[in-house]
Amino acid sequence: MKKFNIILSALCLMYIASINAQDNFKVIKINGNIILQRTGTALDVGLEFAQNENLVFKIPSSRAAVINPKRGRYLLTAESAAEFASSKSNFLPSANKISMRGSPVSVIEDLRLKFEGNYVIFDKMNLNIDPMEYPMNDTNYFYIRYDFKAQQINKKLSFVKDTLIINKTELISVDGRQIPNEEIKEMTLMYCTERGDKYISNYISKFSPVFPDQEALKKETGIILTEMKDKSYDEKIAEVTSFINDFYGKCDEECLKQWLKQNYNLKNQ
Q1: Using CA of residue 57, residue 94, residue 126, residue 116, what is the dihedral sign?
Q2: Is 0.70 topped by the overall pTM?
Q3: Biggest alpha carbon distance in the chain?
Q4: pLDDT tens per residue, range 96-144
Q5: Smallest Cα–Cα separation from 47: which of 69, 22, 63, 24?
Q6: CA distances from 2 to 6, 13, 190, 263 (A)
């Protein structure tokens, strides 16, 4: 009996050790429906689960961003689930290898490339613009054009010296009323020059605006920053940028830094 108890205790210790040795990942964001087969629990933001859990993708296109403090962030899909469960290596390329354009915007092509595809717009954004390429004053300015209920809307953008200001509340309001985000599918960035009674408008680019839910984005980025608390400032910025690129769209690096400083007091020490 004593021998049996010793064996049982040893097995229990081995089981506990295996659990402790197992890497746990926390969910940052989930698109679709993925559940843990063992418990039937659906993955949700903030949920922590073991790497070797069997996952069921109720919607084949579902995907989730998950993170482990030592192993980094991983983009989990139906195609990558098996590799995820068995891998012991870092999953994503180093965040520092992700290319991010700095500011100010120095050439016309840079500005066109910046505003293309899915472009993330925070509540308020300050963008540095090269005044040699695009002077901003009473007769030279940027504006954004979009359609709303068969009506063309033109919104002149504010500026201070060489800083272009995009204010979400002002941008998507008509006659003092806020437009639902989802009703604006495409925007066009224009640059206007006034010459007396003439207005010369120059097309810059078209893009699809993305207006993240601020509370959801705070929760998601908060998880990343907490799990990366021992990482450097640059690593945190790069990882959050990469996550936003994966799930939302392009974001301006300087605007992201401003947003993180405002919401988390994240600074480059």
Answers
A1: negative
A2: yes
A3: 101
A4: 444 444 445 445 678 888 899 999 999 999 999 989 889 999 999 999 9
A5: 24
A6: 6, 17, 83, 59
